[in-house]
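Subject: sequence -> structure tokens, single chain

Hey, anyone have a minute? Need the predicted structure for the following. Not urgent.
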Amino acid sequence: IIENAFSKKHHHSDQILTPEALSCIAEFVSGDARQALNIIEDLIEEHQINKDVFPVSISGLQELINKPLI
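Reply:
Had a minute. Here:
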């Protein structure tokens, strides 16, 4: 589901997230596709504004969504 969301937005997950951060999202959303999509859309939007901080690590992901993930 997460990889499909990236491809529909014409991005590759490795452009946006480190593999560890991608796994962290999958664990964090616990199968909630809507929540995963919301996070991905926010990340892609942020990527379009500021490409310098990408790919995002786990700590960067926590800052972007303002929630502890681990």
